[in-house]
Amino acid sequence: MSPDLLMIGSFLLALLLGVPVAIALGVGGVVGIVAGLPPAMLGTFGTNTYNSVAKYPLIAIPLFILTGLIFERAGVAASLVRFAQAIIGPRHGGLTVVAVLVCLIMGGMSGSGPADAAAVAMVMLPSMKKAGYPQPFSASLIAASSSTAILIPPSIALILYSIVVPGVDLRALFAAGLFPGILAGVSLLAPALFFARKYRWEDPETVDRPELWPSFKAALPALFAPVIILGGLRSGLFTPTEAAVVAVTYGVLVGCLLYRNLGLKDLWNLMTEAAVTSGVVMFIIALAGIFAWAGTTLGTFQHLADALLSLSENGWVLLGLVMILVLIAGMLLDAISIYLILIPIVLPLMNHFGWNPIWFGILLAMNIAIGQFTPPVAVNLMVTTRIANIRLEHTIGWSLVFIAAMAASLLLVMLLPGIALWLPEQLGYVVGSW
User: Fold this and answer.
1) Full DSSP string of 188-203
2) What's residue 207's pLDDT?
3) CA–CA distance, 362 with 57 (Å, rounded to integer)
4) Non-local CB neighbours of 33 within 8 Å, separated by 6+ positions
5) I need a surface site. Which of 100, 119, 174, 340 has the fewest CB within 10 A?
6) Nearest-CA neighbor of 254 among 122, 67, 434, 58?
7) Alpha-carbon dihedral of residues 272, 144, 386, 85, nearest 10 degrees?
8) How far apart are CA 202 and CA 200, in angstroms?
9) So what's the pLDDT on residue 115?
10) The pLDDT of residue 206
11) How confident is the model at residue 190, as a pLDDT?
């Protein structure tokens, strides 16, 4: 058996046996080295794992994870919900609009779908249940809406994409994700409002409307967070990595001094939780370095890309196949693992067909976002169903509705690249060739 098959086969077998993704990547890389390279190459194990994580932009990942945790515990979601309710007012489907809007804004603070799903679900699910919404519908909508965090800057997944794909400007990626993220949110609203009005959920006469001015004052610190982060990046005041430090500092000030929901003990617990989560992420990245080095040295990734090219020379056909492959992967794996495993395989295809790397990165992110609320794994859906105290199987029907809606927005961005590329071009960022 060829080293390529042994490497890929051992990785897939480890996954099927329930081995954690990080260990499976390491096992696959070691098997590939032993099968196809001199045994002395095992000496590169330490160097490759270190080189994988010793990258300056990666500092932003644990900091944005901490930012998301701070804003989640500080009561930001509750203040945003009250403000959105004050703007939209009582109407059939009003709470669905609130849920989507709050998820989009929260995505501009944390860059993590599961964190946003937890924060918004804790606040919105009781209100939606009281207004007559079925819990499976509410849990599915919040899980789908919070998946837009992978698109709305600052996105942890886009940070990793900028590191894996050479020559991609992270600021351009952040700008490119904004409109597709909003489009994805609007696409979810269409079926949500349709069903809310069809079934007469949320009787306007039984729903209280918060006062606008007090709710606006309470939400103002939260609304400023995305403005500070994105405004600082656009003005050149700080780099994306420095933006993560600014975000943490601002979150601490908001949580401790303005909302006063966080104390020193809370901050210590949050930093501990962020360290554990970041450790898991960095461990995956480190062992993926072994897999990536072995696959590149053996030529495994190029061979897989050539096999895909042999299926068709039509770029659109292969782009569709790649999107299906990423969607399937998104149903089983987390975003970080997908980028680390699939990018080396699809990168030769991107170069061969001249796909714009910024646009292609956004397509991958939109596809992975769909995977975050698509069973069987559906990390966002697992969070919201746990909070709603319902079984995940009960949400499958509603999830399929929102999957179709977001798939339509993905298709639109695929056919009209300007939706993603217009803003970074207008801001003067380098977006590459098309």
Assistant:
1) HHHHHHHHHHHTT-S-
2) 67
3) 19
4) 41, 42, 44, 290, 294
5) 340
6) 67
7) 90
8) 6
9) 76
10) 66
11) 93
Q: Determine the pLDDT at residue 416.
A: 94
pLDDT in tens, 48-101: 888 888 887 788 888 888 887 887 787 777 888 888 888 887 777 888 999 999
Q: Hey, where are the domains in the chain?
A: 56-427
Tokens of residue 257, six digits: 């001094």
Amino acid identity, residue 22? Answer: A
Residue ranges in the chain whose pLDDT is less than 70: 110-111, 205-207, 377, 432-434
Which two three-digit tokens encode residue 241? 């990595």
Instruction: Give the span between the Cα atoms of 142 and 160, in whole angstroms.
Output: 25
Number of H helices, E strands in the chain: 20, 0
With tokens 């990734």, the residue in question is: 301
Name the one residue in this structure whose structure tokens are 């072994």.
Answer: 290
CA–CA distances in Å: residue 361 to residues 151, 174, 194, 377, 410: 10, 11, 31, 22, 12
Element (H, E) at 91: none
Which residue is associated with the tokens 């020559």? Answer: 167
- pLDDT value at position 188? 95
Most distant CA pair in the chain, distance: 75
Q: Read off the tokens for 47.
A: 């160097």
CB-neighbour burial class of residue 422 (10 A; exposed 0-12, middle 13-18, buried 19+): middle
Q: Which amino acid is at 101?
A: L
Cα separation, 25 vs 141, whole angstroms: 33
User: What local confidence, expressed as pLDDT, does residue 139 receive?
Assistant: 94
